[in-house]
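Customer escalation, tier 2.

The customer says the design service returned an amino acid string that "doesn't look like it belongs to this structure." They asked us to rerun it and document both sides in this ticket. The original structure tokens are below, unchanged.
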């Protein structure tokens, strides 16, 4: 047995020495054999060389103010946006959002154009078309993963709308059966655009296009890519490859069988594909620098000897340890997390859904309690889907027997302390809890069946996070996920994390 241990230790020692050699030698060889100019130094050009200076345009500053700025480890996010570009009733805004440090990420950007329309989660750049001229108060809020946010506001003035020269299409309002029957008004198609997927020069547009009324159908989707290309497709998704980098305002039109159409615009920024720098050309060491490499090899051998001595000494002093035993989950007591959403943030998260802040708040609190307390000495992970219950039911199925079936709605209110105790017990079941926008617990153990191929989440998140992101992407619901590893609580809207809570 002792011989086997000594052999294993010897192999570890040899591997450590090889790793040190591989780490030290390539860096020095590369530093000696490459001729890389220092950033910021002047570069001499040969006579007649073409050197073009790229002019820069000063951007007028936009006043930003922080909300809930506290002394935290990570700085708040950085938000900068340019002066809005106005084209009649259409406004386009460009800018950037960067996290305050490398330890956090930007999780969502919420746009409020100030015209009482539904607020949108969207990245830069973004365009919006107002329905009437006037001056509007625009605001944008960026959240990072530690819960801090930054808000930017400005005034937007748009002019008179252009009167199109085309003859408007008069919809056929005659009901089947001829004149004299009931009149049915047929509306234009309903078009909703999702966040575009950009990979290099390739762009994929996705969205939802529905007929305005019964009796008519969707004929096609037309996309003007703003580079001289027009694409017509029966339905989404629509893809296109640009020939070069630039900023393009894409027009998407949904065409209905009665001749009516709906057009929306979206701004895209295509960045230049930067090829990977070529690697250094293999070459032998310069003859005049042979002494340098002898010194390097000697230093590497010395490092190996030092590491070997340290490992041998530690091995001899190391006591026999008992086998590792799994650590039991320790419920946390004391004050609850301070980064729970404020009433204003709850209202912002609930905007555009049938969920009220008074319903979302107790759901978040019971999720925090589950993350802090666990169950029977074990950490518990679970999920909640709140609001738009009818559509959520269509995208899910019962995984186990529903323990809430058959009870009166008054006995299933999330605001009732008794039902919250039952939720903690049933949190050990596989599947999600479904809660209506009015706070009625409809089901537990619900399996989400939505297509998750379009979900894009940070690495390290499992199937529970993917399914909740997927269901919020296709419905107007709010998702809450309690992570079993670490107790992190994530709140989802439209397929993205909009708020995180550490229990």
């Amino acid at each position: 047995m002792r011989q086997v241990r000594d052999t294993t230790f010897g192999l570890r020692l040899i591997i450590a020495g090889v790793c040190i050699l591989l780490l030290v030698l390539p860096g020095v060889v590369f530093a000696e054999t490459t001729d890389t100019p220092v950033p910021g130094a002047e570069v001499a050009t040969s006579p007649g060389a073409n050197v073009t200076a790229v002019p820069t345009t000063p951007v007028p500053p936009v006043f930003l103010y922080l909300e809930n700025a506290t002394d935290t480890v990570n700085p708040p996010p950085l938000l900068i946006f340019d002066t809005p570009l106005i084209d009649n009733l259409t406004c386009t805004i460009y800018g950037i959002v960067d996290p305050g440090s490398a330890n956090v990420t930007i999780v969502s950007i919420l746009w409020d154009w100030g015209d009482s329309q539904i607020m949108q989660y969207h990245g830069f750049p973004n365009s919006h078309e107002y329905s009437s001229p006037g001056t509007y108060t625009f605001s944008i809020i960026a959240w990072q993963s530690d819960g801090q946010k930054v808000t930017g506001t400005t005034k937007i003035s748009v002019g008179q709308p252009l009167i199109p020269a085309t003859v408007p299409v008069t919809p056929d309002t005659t009901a089947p059966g001829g004149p004299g029957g009931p009149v049915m008004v047929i509306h234009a198609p309903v078009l909703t655009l999702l966040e575009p997927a950009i990979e290099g020069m390739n762009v994929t547009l996705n969205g939802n296009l529905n007929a305005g009324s019964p009796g008519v159908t969707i004929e096609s989707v037309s996309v003007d890519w703003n580079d001289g290309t027009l694409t017509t497709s029966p339905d989404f998704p629509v893809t296109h490859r640009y020939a070069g980098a630039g900023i393009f305002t894409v027009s998407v039109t949904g065409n209905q069988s009665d001749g009516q159409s709906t057009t929306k615009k979206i701004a895209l920024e295509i960045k230049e594909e930067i090829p990977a720098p070529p690697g250094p050309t293999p070459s032998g060491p310069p003859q005049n620098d042979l002494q340098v490499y002898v010194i390097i090899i000697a230093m590497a051998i010395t490092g190996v000897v030092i590491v070997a001595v340290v490992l041998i000494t530690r091995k001899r002093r190391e006591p026999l340890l008992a086998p590792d035993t799994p650590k039991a989950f320790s419920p946390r007591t004391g004050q609850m997390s301070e980064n729970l959403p404020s009433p204003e943030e709850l209202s912002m998260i609930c905007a555009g859904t049938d969920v009220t802040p008074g319903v979302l708040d107790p759901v978040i609190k019971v999720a925090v309690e589950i993350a802090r307390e666990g169950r029977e000495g074990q950490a518990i992970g679970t999920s909640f889907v709140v609001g738009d219950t009818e559509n959520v039911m269509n995208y899910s199925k019962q995984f186990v027997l529903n323990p809430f079936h058959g009870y009166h709605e008054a006995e299933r209110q999330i605001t009732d302390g008794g039902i919250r105790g039952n939720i903690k017990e049933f949190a050990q079941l596989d599947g999600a809890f479904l809660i209506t926008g009015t706070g009625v617990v409809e089901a537990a153990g619900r399996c989400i069946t939505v297509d998750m191929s379009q979900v894009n989440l940070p690495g390290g998140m499992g199937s529970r996070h993917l399914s909740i992101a997927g269901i919020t992407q296709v419905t107007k619901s709010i998702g809450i996920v309690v992570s079993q590893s670490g107790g992190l609580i994530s709140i989802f809207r439209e397929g993205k994390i909009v708020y995180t809570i550490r229990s």
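Tier 2 assessment: The sequence is consistent with the input. Helices lie at 2-33, 290-317, 343-350, 357-373, 389-394, 417-426, 463-474. The mean pLDDT is 78. Sent an explanation to the customer and offered a walkthrough call.
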